[in-house]
Specification:
single chain, alpha/beta, Rossmann fold, 3-stranded mixed sheet, Ubiquitin-like (UB roll), about 350 residues, 9-stranded mixed sheet
Length: about 350
Amino acid sequence: MKKQNRADSSKRSDILRQKKLEKQNEYLQNVNSRAEKMETRTASESYAQVQRGFQAPQRETNPLAHIDTTDQEYTLPKFHLSWRFFSATIAIVCTFLLVSAFRTPTYRISDIQLSGVERLSPEEIIASIDLQDELIFLVSPFSAEQTIQKNYPELHSIQVTLSLPAKVQIEVSERTPEMAWIYEGKKIWIDNEGYLLPGRGEIATTLSIQANKQPPFYIPEDRLILKGEKRLRKTVVAKGDQDHLALFQVYERIDPITYQAIHELHQLLPEQEIILFDDRRGLGWNDGRGFQVFVGSDLKDIAAKMNMVEEILKTLQPSGIQPTMISLEEINAPYYRLD
């Protein structure tokens, strides 16, 4: 019985296997047949058949329908700008701006302000630099400062500032005269630091120096070594009266020893508004009793010299001698004059 069942089972398996092979062969034949048909069909026929078998869904539209599906290529135009083009453009723009600036009156100086002066005239100082109607970008502040300093030695701390479009601001500090040095009909102001100033204008001073020549000048050692005092003096003498500022361009200050001696003598004799100066006898004063007294270039032993004046007068009075000048520049060799 069991053998019979096994035989029936084997037959069924063979039948199923046979059917499966037949289906596979049939499928392969169909695939081959389709492939042969596709090889003989053109691309346009295949596309048309596919379109016939495609059914677009209802209520839907193709968002890309407006796009052209042809194989035409589109390219954007390309611009190549070289550095030469940019350089030429910049040069043209700069040239245009410069030409415009030279032609327009906007950048021509029309406003010049000066501050810091009291005794001098601002109009004269401004006129000395001659900047009116000049193009502001052609003006050198340093050159303007040097011009002012040369023409006005009484000014210091000079600062020239330019402001667009056409404004110039000048700020200065003015030295104030403290005493007047008068010689040969000329006058030089001296400030409280010993700086020499041109005798321009009038100012009330408490002290005047009546001298027979120019004041002794102070020359820095570096200038003395480089140029020499004789050469400096020749510079002033050569220009003479033709340039009344020549002296101030060479010499800046009075000799500090002489300046200090003048102050000390004025403190000893505050009632004396005039101090005398002789290049050989030094400093002195006009005594109220009708004669001049000279005590030398410094005030060494000044107390003893002033006492000696009284002793000389006591000696001369019994004889009725009235001196016109008593010289004590050498304390050990005093003398007097009658004429």
